[in-house]
Amino acid sequence: MNITLWIAKSTTKFAALALMAVGALVLFGWALDIQTLKSVWPGLVVMKANTALCFTLAGASLYIGGRNGAHYSTPQRKYAALACAMVVALVGLLTISEYVFGLNLGIDQMLFKENAGAVLTSQPGRMSIVTAINFLLLGSALMLPDGRRAWISIQLLAFAATWLSLLSLFGYMYQAPTLYVFSFSTSIAQVTVFCFFILSAGILCSRPERGLVKMLTNDTIGGAMARRLMPIAVIIPIILGWVYLLGVEADVVSPQLGIALATATTVSVFTLLFWWNARQLDAEDIRRERAEEEIRRAKEFADSVLGSMLDGLVTLDPHGVCFDTNPAFCQITGFSRDEIIGTRLLGPIGPPEELEKIEAFFQKFLREGMSENIDLTFMRKNGERFPAILSLSVVKDVQGNVTACLVAIKDITLRRRAEEQRDRLFNTSIDMVCIAGFDGYFKQLNPSWQRVLGWKPEDLMSKPFLDFVHPDDREPTIAAASGLSEGRTVITFENRYLCSDGSYRWISWNSVPIMEEKLILAIVRDVTDQKRMEESLGEANKVLTHQAAELEFVNKELETFSYSVSHDLRAPLRHIDGFSHALLEDYADKLDAQGKDYLNRIRSGSQRMALLIDEILKLSQIVREKMVTSRVDLSALARSVASELQKSQPTRDVSLRIEDGIVVNGDQGLLKIVLDNLLGNAWKFTQGRQKALIEFGSQMIDGTKTYFVRDNGAGFDMAYASKLFVPFQRLHGNGEFQGTGIGLSIVQRVIRRHGGRIWAEAAVDTGATFYFTLTGTTRSLKR
Amino acid sequence: MEERTILLVEDNPDDIELTLRALKCNRVANKVTVVHDGEEALNYLFCRGAYEKRDRNDMPAVVLLDLNMPKVGGLEVLRQIRSNGRTKLLPVVILTSSKEEQDVVNGYALGANSYIRKPVDFDQFTKAVLQLGLYWLVLNEPPPAVKE
């Protein structure tokens, strides 16, 4: 309650009490005939007894009426108050009629007798006409009912009474008896004038929330203005009037000048006053406009925040009924704003299966006033379900009552989908994938870990990962981990991890640190098999290197051996032959035919052995010979071999068919040895044939280019084909065909060195065909 | 025909015997000096050791040189012959059992005039020696004696 309102209410109470007190005092004076008490102050005009009575009754009516409250407290008090007011009005009315009609109704001396000739008194004991009119006016005002419309009348009545009182007051003040002395009437007492002011004020203040007083007590700018201007508007004219009269009476100024001065002063003062007030109003107005602008901006800001929010937002009243949404909510749910407003607890978007949960959550929230965010499934208008996070907050008024709930809904469909995809990738990766902390523990592991190492994820996560690392690998692992914690990426770092069966497996790490979360992301591959393969490859390489060294050594040995064979073995043979020859020549006469025959056999034996030795050397040389690969025209080579053969036995009639354009990659010298032998054999074994035919050509066999040398000579039994290429194995006696049995062995070695193979098809007496290929790599063995 | 000697460098007595026999069969009447190893051959040619008193100007018409010998081998003997001013033009014929390519190449590289591999068949050997004698002792014009 503001202070002016309190003052107003108090005014009525004090006015009522003051009136009753003054009335009682004056009546008491009349009863005891004490002049001073009758006029309240010595020397003043006395108040008539009726007047005092009326003031007492009016004060009582005002007090009992208790218009401070909304209604009369009880009907009895109401009627009592009404009765008092009626007496007051009646006294006023009767007195007026006495003046008007010149009657004496006897009411003037009703209470006490007054001596005739009392000061300014027309009839003894009769109150003045102004007093009577005022009592009629104010008594009526007190009688009027307590309604808004009646209040206007009450106020008018009070104003009229006040106006009349003021006239009298000014009369006394300006010492202008014409204002309070009427020839036909008693004069009003000074105290009476003040009592009327008090009564009017008391009546006006009895309803401080209404009319003029309301305006005075209001907190509004109007109230402030009224409070500011009212006293000045009252006081200034009074003072000016008084000063004017003083001036005129003292003959300081003429009445005309006085009026002019008073008017000018009034105009100036009021102009200033209005200007000052207008300025105050203006400032107030600007302040209010600013405040409005601020509010408008705040609202706009709030609206734009809500409008631009990506999260859906609904506001619910304390009963859970929606009264607003933002655009994001409509976009997320597919419902329009109008479809949502008025629904209860997110009604349309709560899927049936979740309704209970939503209700429980909301109730708990209202009860406790706060909540954690929860994940729920909601439903769009098209029925599609979507995952969302719900968060609630409340708006409270000054008293702390909940006035609204704000519900924010975050659609996490995309996030959930991304999480699912990440999890799928994580779980289906053949490689081991993990997230580990800088604290040395695994945080998350995919199923591959169990598949590879045998440990369950919880086993691996229960201890620092270093515990699983092979003791020999711990130091480099610690180094790698500390590098990661400093932000360095680790690529193909390998260490051994303990498996659940006690064995170790080699794994290779590709790791990146996530510095802000102090985590390591790693993709890890089991490289045990690869490692083993590398190891065995290394072993194989070692063996190969060793074998190559050995081979070289053996080759060296073979060379030395061949040298000694070629040199040292031949010498004794020469001696055998030489001395056998000496015997035959020098001792021919001492030897019989048989002795000479034996010596000849010795000689041919030693010569044959020498031949064999040479052949063996040739064979070993073929293997040791360094191969020089180039394009070799086999057709040309065959023709040159054939022409040599024909020159060696020009008498023989042999038809040679040599295919043109057979060109291969190989060693020219070695391939000539092949053709020398094969064509030589064909030449040899066709001797005695009437129409000898020797062919050299090529054909595709099983997709491989195959060359052949064919003859129609003696051929051989295929049963012995396996012995063909064994050194010194011969299928024909030396009597039939000359030879050492080394030629085909040499041929086979040359073919092998070219990466090919050789085989033969033959039948006795129909001829033989030797096939050979030269495919594959033409590897050259080191000498 | 001026008496021109043949220097036979050969360690094996059988070979010496057979070589001499082949020469005799071919009626090569020239004097044949036999030394039994490389060292002796060098001593003879450079008139050292046991041959200190030998006439320095008496140089053989041809040296028949075996390769496989104890102490100093045939190729070393050849090398020393070719590196000495007095003997560098001396005709040297390598007469050996070996037909190894490296021996042939090395022999020619060191300046052998000829390389003959002794055949096992004595008849062929005889023929070879005949041609050898005919060529080196009769047809071939020896280099002029080197004055010291």
Descriptors for this entry?
heterodimer; A: 783 residues; alpha+beta; five-stranded antiparallel β-sheet; 17 strands; rod-shaped; disordered C terminus; B: 148 residues; alpha/beta; five-stranded parallel β-sheet; 39% helix; globular
Question: What does this molecule look like?
Answer:
The complex is a heterodimer of chains A (783) and B (148). Chain A contains 22 helices and 17 strands. Chain A is of the alpha+beta class. Chain A has a 5-stranded antiparallel sheet. In chain A, strands 7-6-10-9-8 form a 5-stranded antiparallel sheet, with helices on both faces. Chain A has a 5-stranded mixed sheet with strand order 12-14-15-17-16. Chain A is rod-shaped, with a radius of gyration of 72 Å. In chain A, 28% of the residues are buried. The model of chain A is unreliable at 777-783 (pLDDT under 50). Chain B is of the alpha/beta class and 148 residues long. In chain B, 39% of the residues lie in helices and 14% in strands. Chain B has 5 helices and 5 strands. Chain B has a 5-stranded parallel sheet with strand order 2-1-3-4-5, sandwiched between helices. The longest helix of chain B has 18 residues, at 122-139. The model of chain B has no long low-confidence stretch (mean pLDDT 86). Chains A and B meet through α18 and α19 of A and α1 and α5 of B.
